[in-house]
């Protein structure tokens, strides 16, 4: 499977997970029941099958990258979505995170972009992590490293190092899971690469990501610790550290696509992002996406149009 096909597969998993989880967003754990069918409603009262900012911003990223790497082109694509001009399953953009909102308002006012609010610890939401996946399947320019690209694209809305490190891990992991590696092996290799650069293992500890640092344990031990957590030890907020941990925990504790998406939803809180991330990875692990979920997904034409342009552009190969 080439990278273009991997991208298409990952986006499908993202959109389906996002759409399934959206109606339960912001609900506290153990206060609601889920069904095995997609439903509508929720905080934004959307029709069933509606995907949110996670899928929209990923599509914007893909579309901007199709003609070549340029960070401002990505920022302009985000702006089009923010202004309800593109990358939508319906008519209006919604569910825009605080960090993303502030970054886009700042860009509109000043024309400046990049490394946004880097010194603000409160700007460690999951708004960069949720949309960084396309870089896993992209031809990075020879003038820069993959890490530089991840940091730059993350920093368009979320400049703190914590967000960038989380995004790095996710891109490494998606590259490995996209190659068909077993889940725990993909996680292990992603952890090894994340820790390979000088000083990163210590930085992970300082940035509250010690559970990814090989300075504290071997990758196999780190993975076992994540897997063996009980559900009450797994927060599911929009904080990037919580979101990433919850995503990995769900993947390690489920055996098929449907079960993974439903368990991610049962965690409550930021359900659309966690289900979207779980879907991105689980779609490479399992081939059993429920047919009715695919049928009920809204905005399939918008997704197909963006992906067709990306595939023909030749940058995702």
Order of helices and strands: HHHHHHHHHHHHHH
Helical content, roughly? 40-55%
pLDDT under 50 segments (min length 5)? none
Distance from N terminus to C terminus (CA atoms, Å) equals: 10 Å
What is the mean predicted local confidence, pLDDT? 97
**Total DSSP helices:** 14
Overall, the morphology is globular
List the helices and strands and how they pair.
Blueprint: H1 3-21, H2 53-65, H3 71-82, H4 98-110, H5 146-154, H6 161-178, H7 183-196, H8 200-206, H9 219-227, H10 240-252, H11 257-266, H12 271-285, H13 291-296, H14 300-313
Task: Describe the overall structure.
The protein has 317 residues and is mostly helical. 54% of the residues lie in helices and 0% in strands. It has 14 helices and no strands. The longest helix has 19 residues, at 3-21. The chain is globular, with a radius of gyration of 18 Å. The chain starts with a helix and ends with a helix. The model has no long low-confidence stretch (mean pLDDT 97).
């Amino acid at each position: 499977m080439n990278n273009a096909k991997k991208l298409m597969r990952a986006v499908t998993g993202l959109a389906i997970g996002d759409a399934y989880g959206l109606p339960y967003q912001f609900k506290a754990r153990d206060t609601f029941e889920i069904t095995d069918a997609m439903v509508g409603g929720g905080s934004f009262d959307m029709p069933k099958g509606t995907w949110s900012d996670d899928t929209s911003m990923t599509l914007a990223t893909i579309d901007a990258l199709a003609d070549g790497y340029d960070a401002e082109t990505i920022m302009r694509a985000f702006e089009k979505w923010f202004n309800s001009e593109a990358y939508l399953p319906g008519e209006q953009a919604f569910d825009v995170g605080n960090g993303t909102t502030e970054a886009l308002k700042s860009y509109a006012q000043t024309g400046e972009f990049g490394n946004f609010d880097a010194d603000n610890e409160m700007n460690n939401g999951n708004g960069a992590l949720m949309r960084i996946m396309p870089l896993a399947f992209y031809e990075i320019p020879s003038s820069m490293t993959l890490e530089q690209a991840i940091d730059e694209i993350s920093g368009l809305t979320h400049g703190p190092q914590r967000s960038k490190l989380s995004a790095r891990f996710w891109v490494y992991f998606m590259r490995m899971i996209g190659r068909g590696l077993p889940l725990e092996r993909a996680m292990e290799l992603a952890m090894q690469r994340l820790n390979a650069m000088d000083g990163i293992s210590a930085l992970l500890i300082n940035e509250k990501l010690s559970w990814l640092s090989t300075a504290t344990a071997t990758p196999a031990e780190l993975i076992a610790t994540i897997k063996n957590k009980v559900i009450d030890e797994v927060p599911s907020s929009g904080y990037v550290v919580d979101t990433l941990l919850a995503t990995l925990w769900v993947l390690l504790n489920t055996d098929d696509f449907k079960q993974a998406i439903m368990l991610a939803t049962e965690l409550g809180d930021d359900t659309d992002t966690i289900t979207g991330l779980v879907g991105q990875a689980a779609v490479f692990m399992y081939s059993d996406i429920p047919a009715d979920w695919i049928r009920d997904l809204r905005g399939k034409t918008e997704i197909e149009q963006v992906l067709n342009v990306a595939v023909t552009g030749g940058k995702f190969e």
